Amino acid sequence: MFSLFNGARGKDKEAYIIPRSVQQTIPIRRIWPDGIFLSGNKHTKCFRFSDINYALSADNDKNATLDDYGAVVNSLESGCNAKITVINRRCYLSDIKDNLLLDYEGDGLDRYRDEYNDILINKATGSSSIVRERILTLSVMKQDIDAARVYFNRIGAELTAKFKRLGSRCTELDANARLRLLHEFYRKGEEDFYSFNINEAARYGHDFRDYICPDRFSFKINHFEMGSRFGRVMFIKDFANRIGDDFFAELSGLGANMMLTIDIIPVSTEDAIKEAEKRMLGVETNIANWQRRQNQNNNFSAAIPYDMDLQRAEARAFIDDIVAYDQRMFLCTILIMHTADTLEQLDIDSDAIKGAARQRLCQIAALNTQQLDGMNAALPIGASKLEARRTLNTESLTIFAPFCAQEISMRGGVYYGINTVSNNLIIADRKQLQNGNSMIFGVSGSGKSVMAKQEIIKLTLSTNDDIIIIDPEREYPKLVGALGGEVINISSTSPNHINAMDINASYGDSKNPLILKTEFLLTLCAQFMNHPPTEGQRSIIDRCAGIVYHPYIQSKYTTDPPTLSDFHEELLRFKEPEAADLALAIEIFAKGSLSTFAKRTNCDVHNRLICYDILDLGDSLMPVGMLVVLDSIINRITKNRAQGKNTFIFIDEIYLLMRHQYSANFIHDLWKRVRKYGAFCTGITQNVGDMLRSQTARNMLSNSEFLIMLNQSTPDRDELTSLLGLSPNQLSHITDAEVGHGLLKVGSSIVPFSNKFPKETELYRLITTKIDEVER
Question: Is 108 exposed, middle or buried (0-12, 13-18, 19+ CB in 10 A)?
Answer without folding.
Answer: exposed
